[in-house]
Amino acid sequence: MSKHTIVVCDHIHEDGLNILKNTEDVNYVYAADIDKTSLLDVIKDADIVITRSSTDVDEKFLDAAKNLKAVIRAGVGYDNVDMEGCSKRGIIAMNVPTANTIAAVELTMTHMLSCMRKFPYAHNQLKNDRIWKREDWYGNELFGKKLGIIGFGNIGHRVGLRAKSFEMEVVTYDPYIPSTKATDLGIEYTTNFDDILACDIITIHTPKNKETIDMIGEEEIAKMKDGVILINCARGGLYNEDALYNNLKSGKIAMAGIDVFKKEPAIDNKLLDLPNITVTAHLGANTKESQKKIAVQAAQNAIDSARGVSYPNALNLPIDESKIPSFVKPYIELTQKIAFLAAQRDRSPIRSIAVCAQGDIKEYLDSLSTFAAVGALSVSAGSDVNYVNAKFLAEDKGITFETSEMKSTSGYSNKITLKLTTENGVSTISGTVFDDNVQRIVELNGFDFDIEPKGKMIIMRNNDIPGVIGTVGKLLGDRNINISDFRLARGKNKDALAIILVDNSINSKILEEISNIEAAISVSYVEI
Ligand SMILES: NC(=O)C1=CN([C@@H]2O[C@H](COP(=O)(O)OP(=O)(O)OC[C@H]3O[C@@H](n4cnc5c(N)ncnc54)[C@H](O)[C@@H]3O)[C@@H](O)[C@H]2O)C=CC1
Ligand SMILES: O=C(O)C(=O)COP(=O)(O)O
């Protein structure tokens, strides 16, 4: 039995590890405790890797993991994964998006309460310094304060609900949700970021990306109330760390509760030197409950993706398969096959791939075009091409894409036409799917056909003169090649196109012999 190598790069709960250990077709490698250089060696045979935020899945990592098919981020944020690098290599990246939500929500509330009561400092004074000075520790209450939440997703909205149970006023800023998601929960929704900056406490729960890095800097802090409290249990760098440091130092920001840092591990971060900050070492997801759920899901997802069964929570698929209706799926398959056929007929460099759709499938032109790319490129790239990287690879080769739609005039309710332009010429192939779900080529370079794109096919264009079928039949028969089907279409210019299905593969010598038949204009051989 061939085994899938799954490398676990970070610490995950033993329940997940046990699933991997006990799965027969998995070769499980535990690499959480090794240094980064040794890890590059360990992952060279990995089919799948499981990581947390501590492992950078960067260019170096991806270059080392030559066999890699999927990256499972055992958590939410995937800013440590080079998504474009994965896509270019056809590697599917997945996360486990909701299993640690509660843990992060509760840590956010912990930091908020800790900041209000300066809990770690009060704790240290009694426990470590053995000083009983109650007058040093007058805190503040959450009750009646206004909380501003930036990002109202899985974590943000639950922080809002918990804040309400503390009888806080809550306002959120998240331009990507409908306002009712907040207002239905009795939470104010704003599109004016200044409403957030005017709050007593501000917490952020967005992903880390170009738009959110440094979302809070000097300018934003200047607009805040004196004595504001800032919480960050999302990602380091969403609050500019220099601005945070300067304003904590000046007292403009009274306290900050910080779980995440721009550079981790953050043992040398200057924020740690300040007296008005509560810190944790990126522990947002670190509850036993969360880690158990994440590890089990990550292990299961790793096995499913290794087996090619499913890719749950895939982040870089150009197509959301769940949104493709079942009637479109055979057209997607058909498009891939006819592109594969066209690219085999003419193996010279591809210049452009145009897809034209008739009927309801026109809504799915992007997907059809992606699969046309997979079909066309797999002639030269083989299994290295898949629908994640096909368009990236095509772009690298300078191939252009065109999509168009046409009114249905052909009598078929749906029809797909692929036009493949290469350095040597153009192939145009149309196909449809009949009610019994059978895929058919209905036109090839202007010749009408009704043939399934399947099997070993000799495609011959010839002058339409007597004796061609007999000559080809004899030539193949003499070479012990059995013909299983012979389809002929006549053109308008005394020419004809034959698709000859054969039982055996045709080598270049036989193909040349057929090309040498006097009536032959062009001959090609394809296998689907
Ligand atoms: N400290 C830790 O250990 C943990 C950290 N996290 C981090 O918490 C963050 C939030 O996680 P989830 O709530 O699960 O994600 P989510 O995807 O459910 O929610 C993110 C929300 O941010 C919003 N958003 C995106 N760009 C925005 C912008 N420019 N302005 C305002 N809102 C914006 C989105 O619309 C979405 O509603 C992520 O960065 C994640 O990596 C998550 C779990 C544990
Ligand atoms: O899920 C997230 O986004 C987290 O930040 C948790 O990261 P971790 O798996 O604890 O390294």
From TrEMBL:
Pathway given in the UniProt record: Amino-acid biosynthesis; L-serine biosynthesis; L-serine from 3-phospho-D-glycerate: step 1/3
Residue ranges constituting the ACT domain according to the UniProt record: 457-528
CDD domains, per database record: ACT_3PGDH-xct, PGDH_4
Superkingdom of the organism of origin: Bacteria
GO MF: hydrolase activity, hydrolyzing O-glycosyl compounds; NAD binding; phosphoglycerate dehydrogenase activity
Keywords noted in UniProt: Amino-acid biosynthesis, NAD, Oxidoreductase, Serine biosynthesis
Gene3D superfamilies for the chain: 3.30.70.260, D-3-phosphoglycerate dehydrogenase, domain 3, NAD(P)-binding Rossmann-like Domain
E.C. no: 1.1.1.95
A Pfam family recorded for this sequence: 2-Hacid_dh_C
Biological processes annotated in GO: carbohydrate metabolic process; L-serine biosynthetic process
The protein's enzyme class: oxidoreductase
Reaction(s) the record says it catalyses: (2R)-3-phosphoglycerate + NAD(+) = 3-phosphooxypyruvate + NADH + H(+); (R)-2-hydroxyglutarate + NAD(+) = 2-oxoglutarate + NADH + H(+)
Family named by the database record: Belongs to the D-isomer specific 2-hydroxyacid dehydrogenase family.
Its biological purpose: Catalyzes the reversible oxidation of 3-phospho-D-glycerate to 3-phosphonooxypyruvate, the first step of the phosphorylated L-serine biosynthesis pathway. Also catalyzes the reversible oxidation of 2-hydroxyglutarate to 2-oxoglutarate.
Full protein name: D-3-phosphoglycerate dehydrogenase
Annotated organism of origin: Halarcobacter anaerophilus
Lineage of the species this protein comes from: Bacteria, Pseudomonadati, Campylobacterota, Epsilonproteobacteria, Campylobacterales
